[in-house]
Design a protein that fits this description.
Layout (H helix, E strand, L loop, with lengths): L1 E5 L5 H9 L15 H8 L1 H6 L5 E5 L5 E8 L2 H11 L1 H15 L1 H8 L14 H5 L4 E7 L8 H15 L4 E7 L3 H9 L3 E7 L12 E8 L2
Parallel strand pairs: 4-5
Antiparallel strand pairs: 1-2, 2-3, 3-4, 5-7, 6-7
Amino acid sequence: MVHIRNYQARDRKGVINVCWHTGYMGESAAGRFDDSYLFGLLFCLYYIDYEPENCFIAIDEKTGQVIGYILSSIDSKKQEKQFRKKMIPKIALRAFLYTLWRHPRSFRVLWHFKKIWGNEPKIPNIETLLAPYPAHIHIDILPEYHRQGIGTQLLEIFEKHLKDHNIKGFHLGTSEQNSKAIQFYQKLNFSVIYEGPSGYGMWPDTPEIKSLIFAKEVK
């Protein structure tokens, strides 16, 4: 049985683990990025540290393990500014004081990550494009728990949360290579509102692939 609830502080390590093991276009990043904590700083810790009220966790009741989540911000414009203010210093400290010496491969990968350093491809008219969908999410589930309806349950709870806050829509990003996620979003009536260059230049050995932004109205 899987139980879904609001994030709690005790879930922190479990969230990092899920993020790390789903972070390479839906597959594990563990073989490409050794520093799991730095990976968490990049992709998940902002949400649980600064917007925990907008985060929902899926727990395997038998083991107590965190097996999936929705991490979100209900104000994406504010979140982008806050991420740079609050997280970039933490990322830099971790990278230069620890990762560079203990995980040099991860440091090299980080150096390629265009989005963090402000060199990611610019999306034309992005503010207009995302105006109807001000919230955004990261939804990840460990592969062994796929096809059990967990993602659908997470989204149902999250959409109710948005309704309670009078938020009319949300969006998320993925890559054209994440075929399982794409099928899932299409099944749940998400729409593709953008297709273009991606920030996956983080991975030095990964060819340039398209980024997709999916969006959904909350009804």
